[in-house]
């Protein structure tokens, strides 16, 4: 009997035979007491009676899948004689149960850059029906292409695995629906939330926003020479950046109030005569383990100013000449040099 059979349905049972005649062969029937079934007698036009099983209340295979009853036939003789037959009722399944997920929301935390095919989480749904009606298959359901490009589900096991590279910097959380469908077409849904954990996969980036070069050598200390932007796409300690300078340039680095911008200022006076240009390397390191670094090279040209007077090769020249030296004769050659360059370093004598 199908479990969807409505109460009141009748099912003919086997009739009994008695070889006696008259009252001794007059048969009555009795059925084992059961709240789901009762017995009625259907009389045929020829006067014979057919026992019929009547369904008194709805069946539910998931609660009780079978019944064992006994049908007894009793004759009218004295003493009474009877015969019995076993009535075994199988309740056949109907697809009256949808799959049920063990959770309404499945959550997982996974690191970014997982290899394709890595297990993320496992969803599970059960169906109380039997046979194909209770066989559950899983799918992502109606999700955007961006989700199906990153995640895939095994139809039979419910294992959700990565199908593409995850990137925390692109998106840190995914929420989407999944569905379970049984063999009869009934569907249920659940939600999946996957949080992406940041890894230190980005090195700090240094961008030179402005650079003052060349710089006059008489520029006051404290003057801003360059403005930089230092940025790391990672989060937390992986994105916290510290900077340091290497090289002999008389510059120092100062962090701005915003934390991202760095300013290079002149720490001490410049001297073009000491060095015509200054080179330094700015190194930015994040707080990851292991740390990642980014570098930028900065070259500052020093412009000459007239800060040097000519200097004679000697402070005093002593010359002895005869009194009859011809007019126009060279008596002595004096030499002076100037540490400046260009016009500032060209020396004239008088």
UniProtKB/TrEMBL annotation:
<dbReference type="InterPro" id="IPR050174">
    <property type="entry name" value="Protocadherin/Cadherin-CA"/>
</dbReference>
<dbReference type="GO" id="GO:0005509">
    <property type="term" value="F:calcium ion binding"/>
</dbReference>
<feature type="domain" description="Cadherin">
    <location>
        <begin position="102"/>
        <end position="206"/>
    </location>
</feature>
<feature type="domain" description="Cadherin">
    <location>
        <begin position="313"/>
        <end position="350"/>
    </location>
</feature>
<dbReference type="GO" id="GO:0005886">
    <property type="term" value="C:plasma membrane"/>
</dbReference>
<keyword id="KW-0130">Cell adhesion</keyword>
<dbReference type="GO" id="GO:0007156">
    <property type="term" value="P:homophilic cell adhesion via plasma membrane adhesion molecules"/>
</dbReference>
<feature type="domain" description="Cadherin">
    <location>
        <begin position="15"/>
        <end position="101"/>
    </location>
</feature>
<keyword id="KW-0677">Repeat</keyword>
<protein>
    <submittedName>
        <fullName>PCDGD protein</fullName>
    </submittedName>
</protein>
<keyword id="KW-0106">Calcium</keyword>
<dbReference type="Pfam" id="PF00028">
    <property type="entry name" value="Cadherin"/>
</dbReference>
<keyword id="KW-0472">Membrane</keyword>
<keyword id="KW-0812">Transmembrane</keyword>
<feature type="domain" description="Cadherin">
    <location>
        <begin position="207"/>
        <end position="312"/>
    </location>
</feature>
<keyword id="KW-1133">Transmembrane helix</keyword>
<dbReference type="InterPro" id="IPR002126">
    <property type="entry name" value="Cadherin-like_dom"/>
</dbReference>
<dbReference type="InterPro" id="IPR015919">
    <property type="entry name" value="Cadherin-like_sf"/>
</dbReference>
<dbReference type="InterPro" id="IPR020894">
    <property type="entry name" value="Cadherin_CS"/>
</dbReference>
<keyword id="KW-0732">Signal</keyword>
<keyword id="KW-1003">Cell membrane</keyword>
<keyword id="KW-0325">Glycoprotein</keyword>
